[in-house]
Amino acid sequence: MRRYPKQVIVWELEGSYRLWAVGAFAVGGLLLAAGLGLWDPAAAFLSLPPLLMGGYLWRENPRETIAYDPANGFIWREQHRGRKVEVRARYRVRDFQALALVKYRLPRRGFRLMMVLLGEGGRKEKLDERPFAASLRRLGEDIARTVGWE
């Protein structure tokens, strides 16, 4: 996790996949090795890709954060992959008046929640969008309260 100055407030968003995916790859590789016999050279060869994939997913698990720095008045969204940090979007807080939470339904994907920053003149910027969860709604309300948009 990246280190931030003391005044920066950070909210972690849910990752794109959970650790059970890593476990499934690792267990699949071990079961394949056990099924073929641990001393069989083919077992080592066939179980290596699932084990390596599990390790790759463990290391490169994408995590997203939303951070707010009251000192300079910016809010930004970052994506962390291993040690790499990429700033996906950066917004100046004074350019916006509110944070809207929009719940909608897509036919095959179910309910989703979008966080939208509302600015002057009808300007809208999407801060984040992901599957609907009550915790995500509380997170959006907490961000709005912290920034002072309530």
Quick description:
Helix content is 34%, strand content 39%. With 150 residues, the chain is an alpha+beta fold.
Overall pLDDT score: 82
Determine Rg (CA atoms, Å): 21 Å
Number of helices, counting only DSSP H or I runs of 4 residues or more? 3
The total tally of domains equals 2
Measured by DSSP, the beta-strand proportion falls in: 35-45%
The major β-sheet equals: 4 strands, antiparallel
> In angstroms, what separates the terminal alpha carbons?
30 Å
Number of β-strand runs: 7
Key phrases:
150 residues; alpha+beta; 7 strands; 34% helix; 39% strand
Topology at a glance:
Elements: E1 9-13, H1 19-36, H2 41-59, E2 63-69, E3 74-81, E4 84-92, E5 96-106, E6 110-119, E7 124-131, H3 134-147
Antiparallel strand pairs: 1-2, 2-3, 3-4, 5-6, 6-7
Task: Give an overview in words.
The chain is α+β, with helices and mostly antiparallel strands and 150 residues long. The protein folds into two domains: 9-15 and 63-147; 19-59. Helix content is 34%, strand content 39%. The strands form two sheets. The chain has a four-stranded antiparallel beta sheet, with helices on one face. The radius of gyration is 21 Å and the shape is elongated.
